[in-house]
User: What shape does this take?
Amino acid sequence: MPKKGNIQQLLNDAFTISWGERRPASNYLYPTDMGAEDPESHHYIEPTLPIPRHQGLYDLLSYARLAPTTPILPSRKAIRERLRDFVTESQQETLQRLPSNAKMSIALDCWTSPSKHAFMAITGYILDQDWEYREVLLGLNQFLILQQHKIIHRVLAVTTDNASNNKTLVTAVKESVKTLQEGIDLTIFQVPCLAHLIYLVRLRLRQRITTLSQLPDDLVRGLAVFINGTPQRKETFLKLQSSNGQRLQLLPIQDVRTRWNSTFLMLRRAKSLHATFGKYCQDYSQPHFALSPEWWRQIDYLLYTLQPFFTFATLVCRTKDSSINLVFRGYDKLFDHLERSMSQLRRKKAHWKQMMLSFLEAAKERPVK
Assistant: This one.
């Protein structure tokens, strides 16, 4: 956050530009002084950084010009206390909407701020009396916050990532609960992240490949790395598209092992640039990256196979609503797609289609190991 003096100078400059002179400072200005009922009040305290270029700051300066005298920003401690009170009131207001016999889900998220400070956020997700989906930031202190709000016995689910050590966590939780609550039949189970599981299906497929040189995506990946390796090659590739009359010039994409859907996006981009790929390999002596018509057919089939996985993973990641109810339905849809694809391939005799069939069978067999 900028120093107080810098922001104060912005305020003074704003008044100087507006009225041509500085006024004596005699009143304090808080970002929330417009009143809780003002729908714009939340806009002025958005945490988006960097603050000097944030539209909310300019709106705040415009609001400050309406004051009879130059506003003075309060101290950092005063602002911190006001914001803490605002957060506490917001928490209580949201939690009061939780019906007395209802449960809530808890999600933990570790992240790092632009100032390199690490936090663990605890967010609660509830359905209120009107069946409206709501979420509330409970705090940044691990689980002590649940005791503070007296909701430790009302936790229905805990959302985590799909890290392998979470299986150990679930086992430990089961043993602890069994020890503390003997005689109570309490079922605790883990529902894996659907988006991550979709990615693991693709990863499982790749792990079964023993002859990587037979797959076209390796050539696409290699050519993408080669072209993006220097500014000169990028410029040459873009000029080839311009000479072919292509209005939108694009560069090839290299997939990343840990980034979901990146292989699908790499192949989809390559398919849209297949004419430029061929001309580049021919004109600039890169025949080892050239793809035959049969390999482009394989890319078409890979795109067909991966399209539903891309769609489901994208929808799950983008939704802001509860998605646990979509998990098993998503499993059914994706397994139906795999079974239809395998049924079509069983009738084919081409070697690469039989190889693709074995890959799909491996993906369906056990995507997570």
Remarks:
- DSSP finds 13 helices and six strands in the chain.
- The mean pLDDT is 74.
